[in-house]
Structures are given as structure tokens and as C-alpha cells.
Design a protein that fits this description.
Number of helices: 8
Structural class: alpha+beta
Number of strands: 10
Distance between the termini: 62 Å
Strand order of the largest sheet: 5-4-3-8-6-7
Helix content: 25-40%
Mean pLDDT: 87
Length: 269
């Protein structure tokens, strides 16, 4: 899902549709053309998409033998993943190198708070659910507030009942599924002190990820480009020892190399 641009500087997204259905040659040509045109490509992929689509993506990258394609598959709910992709699109307009931009994805996940209000948790397997909640999910009218990231949490939704939220200023997006409730907008958002609240279209993978179409998905995030840029540029950067690209963290997002382990010399005596 490609969210609308946050501002006029936000770089447009390229959506790789029907990867598992089109001929392999078409997928190869499409990704090769993107790489040649832009120099580097960062693919943000949901773990909720089909296994065949994800296999096709890795197959194409392998056949192209390119270290200029980074495949990023964070374990985030679909709406949070769409938010993260838009934040990277915002940062792509800045003077960040491809390695730093791709590495920023891992950093920014720590500043997302994502979950959903569910009408049932009977088929929810992404977040730990106790037997009592499973049993109550079969009762008519039951609704559950679920936090999937940064740490799992589940409550039975009611006025005054909320979930642990961010300790910094955020905006919030809401995506409405087949569930009617004002708990997210009326209870959760005020308790999280969300500075802005907007509604967007529910991602296509959300019902599969959450195990039910009866949901309202939400995500709180850092909204401003200056804040995102300052956050990314304040982190220590290094160069990948294998491909030489600048990165944040201990693993290169393009060639997947990790720093070599140097054994400590044995002490004499």
C-alpha cells in the first residue's frame, strides 16, 4: 500500500503488483529497469503478502546478482509498514546516501506504535493471546485492543481502557475495516496524545495479518521530515567492509554482510 504523500517533497512510490502472477522475465525486466534508472532500489515488503510473491522477489534479486537492491521485510502490521515506506520516501528527498536511507528503515521501526481494534482474536496468530481472550472473542459484541509493535499487548476494549503508547509526540493514522467503534479515535488517540488523526484506506493485507476483516487498524508515528532527518543523521554511520557502502548498524542492507569477528589475541603466560 502506497500512502498519499506527506508533503510536496515526498518521493512517489513504485508498487510492484502481481509479482507472483506475471512471467519471471517481466519481473526481471521491471526491477532491472528501476535499478538502472535510480541507481539503487529499496523494496519494502510485507510478510503478509503471499509466499510466492516474496519468493519471486528474492529470486529476481538473486538472478540480477545486484547489490544495489535492498529487500526490507520488517515484522510490522500492514498499516505500519505503509507508514514506514512513506517515511523512507520522505527521506529520499534529502541528501542521504542509498545505504543510509535503506538502513534508516530499521531505525525508524523503533518509533512506530502499531495495532488494531479487533472484533475477534480467534484467528490472531501474530500476537500472543491467552485462552480467556480466545473464549471471550466468541461472545457477541466483544472487541479487543491489540498492540503488535513495539511490544505485544492485548486488552478488552472499553471506555477508559487503553494500551501503552509512545512517550514522544506522534501523529496517528486509522484504517477502517468491517468494524464500527469510536474506541480508537475517542479513547486510544487522546490517551496517546496524538497530535493529528487521519483516516486512510485499509491495506489489502490487513485482514489476513490480523486474522479477521472486522478491525480498525492504527499506527502512531513521527510525522515531520525535519525530525526524521535529524534522527537518522544523529546515529553513528560506518562503511560496509564488503561493498563499501555507508550504513547504519552492523549489517549491510544491500549485500547483507556483517562486520568480521576479530578474535582477541591470546595472553602470554
Amino acid at each position: 500500500m502506497a500512502l498519499p504523500a506527506q508533503d510536496e517533497r515526498t518521493v512517489p512510490a513504485v508498487v510492484l503488483k502481481d509479482l507472483e502472477q506475471e512471467p519471471l522475465d517481466s519481473s526481471l525486466a521491471r526491477l532491472q529497469a528501476l535499478t538502472e534508472h535510480h541507481g539503487h532500489v529499496i523494496v519494502v515488503c510485507s510478510r503478509a503478502v503471499s509466499r510466492r510473491a516474496r519468493q519471486r522477489l528474492h529470486t529476481v534479486r538473486s538472478l540480477l546478482e545486484s547489490d544495489r537492491i535492498a529487500v526490507f521485510e520488517p515484522d510490522l502490521p500492514p498499516l505500519a509498514l505503509a507508514v514506514l515506506a512513506r517515511q523512507l520516501r520522505q527521506l529520499a528527498s534529502c541528501d542521504l546516501s542509498p545505504g543510509i536511507l535503506a538502513s534508516a528503515g530499521r531505525l525508524l521501526t523503533h518509533y512506530l506504535h502499531a495495532g488494531a481494534l479487533l472484533g475477534s482474536v480467534a484467528r490472531l496468530d501474530r500476537v500472543p493471546v491467552d485462552l480467556g481472550s480466545h473464549a471471550r472473542s466468541w461472545m457477541p459484541g466483544s472487541q479487543f485492543g491489540v498492540l503488535a509493535h513495539p511490544s505485544p499487548e492485548l486488552v478488552r476494549a472499553a471506555p477508559g481502557v487503553t494500551l501503552p503508547g509512545p512517550e514522544f509526540g506522534t501523529s496517528m493514522l486509522i484504517a477502517q475495516g468491517q468494524l464500527q467503534s469510536d474506541w480508537v479515535a475517542g479513547t486510544l488517540a487522546p490517551s496517546w496524545r496524538a497530535q493529528g488523526l487521519r483516516e486512510v484506506v485499509l491495506p489489502a493485507e490487513s485482514a489476513r495479518w490480523w486474522g479477521t476483516p472486522k478491525l480498525i487498524e492504527f499506527c502512531a508515528f513521527l510525522p515531520g521530515l525535519p525530525v526524521l532527518y535529524q534522527l537518522v543523521t544523529s546515529v553513528r554511520q560506518s562503511s560496509c567492509h564488503w561493498c563499501g557502502i555507508d550504513v547504519i548498524g552492523d549489517r549491510c542492507v544491500f549485500c547483507s554482510a556483517t562486520p568480521p569477528v576479530h578474535e582477541q589475541p591470546a595472553r602470554a603466560g
